[in-house]
Amino acid sequence: MTSHEDLAVRFGTPLYVYDLDEITAARHELFDALPEEFDLYYALKANPHPGLVRALRDGEGRSCRAEISSTGELAAALEAGFDGSECLYTGPGKTLGELREAIGAGVRLFSTDSVTDVRRVGEAAAGHGVVADILLRVNSASATATSSIRMTGTPSQFGFDSETLGDLLPDVLATPGVKVRGMHYFPLSNAKDENALIGEFQHTIAGAAELARRLDIPLDYLDIGGGFTVPYGVPGERGHYPKLRAELEAALDTHFPDWRAGTPRLACESGRFLIGASGTLLASVSNVKVSRGRKFVITDAGINTFGGMSGLGRLLPVAVQPQAGAETESASLVGPLCTPGDVLGREITLPALSPDDLVTVPNVGAYGPTASLLMFLGRPAPTEVIVRGDDVVSASRIEHSRSYLPTAPGASE
Ligand SMILES: *Cc1c(COP(=O)(O)O)cnc(C)c1O
Q: Same domain for 49 and 181?
């Protein structure tokens, strides 16, 4: 591969480098870990760069489908070569306008979170003279023993509470413009190990079977969610799932004896696992200073470039890839923004760094630029380079710009 140093010189920093071969490897690993009857949705939320999304659809082996949640993600999926019919549209606050746009682009499968949501999908579909397929997203009343922190379902903007779904179902089934095809669960993200993941899936499969039978919910399609893991901004590898496939098959044989014949058809979802390990962030040290005995390494990549979701109290700190044989020291890795919150790692172990040194953060392919505070403090977005082997496939940057709208009353019509 073209060295990171070369790419940093050629394109400047902060720079994301994504390796398509790594995405292909992750995709094959995950398909191999699942029963072959499964559909696999890539959640564009993790990284909507069309050049990366394309690698999950095209090429040898089974193709992912696209899970989208906005018209921006819809546009990215279409640009990556997906057809509307390969998309699942999700989210708790879908508007009529975006639903019309999605249906106009050929999307026919929607995960729905409330009666209002179902009615809106129906209205948008009817407006286009079509019937949309819907999944009922379910917020289970109970969680599995392996994630024992929550023994009962938590209140959430996502999904129908399983306890009250029965009361709402007649309304849902009678809504014009939609046909209920099945259910969607997504109870867990980034499961800590294979056993936790298997436990959650077993719980979901058993719960879905019980609910469908008790309430007589049509069930052609069952999306059991995800939870596949990869490190975030620190060294390490994707999760390994040697037992998953057999455990899923066993649970499905128990609860859905006809699943191998396609009733119901099954699906899983992943964002981070498929894309996380493909990305490396390169930043340049602009200054190293000491304040009251503590060292601060200031780089050109702050929370406007990576880890902006740290405001949500999770995910960071990052780790910097050590150079072989280099000395290490304790310091805070901070960005260039005028806020004390611009910290990628507080008092972490870093190589001894000086101004102009290159800093390398691994496993940043998921939840990178678009999950960061891109516009805060008005710095340019990082450049994003896609490579395959020694070839640079593309280089691009998201641009922010302000559009002025007509201000006179009625002028927008
Ligand atoms: C966020 C999300 C995903 C992707 O989660 P990862 O942890 O990145 O795999 C998948 N499905 C739904 C419904 C989501 O909200």
A: yes
184 CA closest ligand 1 atom index: 13
Write the pLDDT tens digit of every residue in 43-70.
Answer: 999 999 999 999 999 988 999 999 999 9
Q: For ligand 1, say whether the CB of 269 is within 6 Å of any of its atoms.
A: yes
As given in the structure block, the two tokens for residue 407 are: 């201000």
Among the atoms of ligand 1, which is closest to the Cα of residue 189?
7
Supply φ then ψ for residue 287, to 5 degrees: -160, 150
Q: Within 13 Å of residue 384, how many CA atoms lie on the same side as its CB?
A: 23
Q: What is the mean pLDDT of the chain?
A: 93
Taking the C-alpha atoms of residue 258 and residue 204, their distance in angstroms, rounded to an integer, is: 17
226 ligand 1 Cβ < 6 A: yes
Q: Is residue 3 in some structural domain?
A: no
The residue whose C-alpha atom lies closest to atom 5 belonging to ligand 1 is 271
The answer to whether the predicted template modeling score (pTM) of the entire model surpasses 0.90 is yes
What CATH number is attached to the domain comprising 201?
A: 3.20.20.10
Nearest Cα residue to atom 15 of ligand 1: 186
